């Protein structure tokens, strides 16, 4: 998605060869117009996938996932990273290890919000190692639903998540697939 890639080049910053800072428009301050266009682009790419629901992982996936859901005319479900004490019945959980944060958390879904008839499109801001995406997929499939696809706003193609998801047979779309970050330069895989 050209507009997104130009925005990353203009306002993003490669902190080092592994971490891309995009907090001025994606995951701290949010540009709603860009999010709207991201939602339209995901909706276009997954139009034929029979999507009945969008799922995302809190917190930074919520903005692009909401816009995608709005565009596709379906509901959006937030997979939680912690359990509220008032949530006890009918919850599904799986452990996810975050390499970035070097800690594990319990990804949580109230099963009533995803049913066996659903075809779920998973949307997230970053795809890195794929741990969060595979955790989300485990929960959604445990609820009996099928995965219609996985959409990442930014995928770091030099980390294993993108390849692992495709090898596992999931349809993955990355709007900005980053091939390499070197000496402050950001290079995209599809340029
Ligand atoms: P994985 O799920 O793909 O295996 O990745 P990992 O656990 O390593 O990533 C965990 C968190 O780090 C995620 O946010 C993800 O969005 C973020 N992240 C990964 N790579 C980058 C990067 O290059 N730049 C930035 N800015 N973030 C990155 P999170 O902890 O779930 O936080 P949030 O969604 O609550 O903001």
Automatic annotation (TrEMBL):
Q: Where in the cell is it found?
A: Cytoplasm
Q: Which Gene3D superfamilies match?
A: 3.40.50.2020
Please provide the record's keywords in A-Z order.
Answer: Cytoplasm, Glycosyltransferase, Purine salvage, Transferase
| Annotated EC | 2.4.2.22
Record-annotated residues binding xanthine?
20, 27, 156
- Sequence similarity: Belongs to the purine/pyrimidine phosphoribosyltransferase family. Xpt subfamily.
Name of the protein this chain belongs to: Xanthine phosphoribosyltransferase
Organism field: Candidatus Pullichristensenella excrementigallinarum
């Amino acid at each position: 998605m050209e507009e997104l890639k130009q925005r990353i080049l203009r306002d993003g910053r490669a902190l080092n060869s592994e971490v891309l800072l995009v907090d001025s428009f994606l995951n701290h301050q949010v540009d709603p117009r860009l999010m709207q266009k991201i939602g339209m682009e995901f909706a276009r790419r997954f139009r034929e996938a029979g999507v009945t629901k969008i799922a995302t992982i809190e917190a930074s996936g919520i903005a692009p996932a909401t816009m995608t859901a709005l565009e596709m005319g379906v509901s959006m479900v937030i997979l939680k990273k912690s359990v509220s004490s008032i949530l006890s019945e009918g919850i599904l959980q799986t452990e996810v290890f975050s390499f970035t944060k070097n800690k594990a958390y319990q990804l949580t879904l109230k099963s009533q919000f995803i049913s066996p008839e659903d075809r779920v499109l998973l949307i997230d801001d970053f795809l890195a190692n794929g741990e969060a995406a595979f955790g989300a997929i485990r929960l959604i499939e445990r609820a009996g639903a099928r995965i219609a696809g996985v959409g990442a706003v930014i995928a770091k193609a030099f980390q294993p998540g993108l390849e692992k998801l495709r090898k596992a047979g999931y349809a993955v779309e990355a709007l900005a697939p980053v091939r390499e970050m070197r000496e402050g330069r950001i290079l995209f895989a599809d340029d």
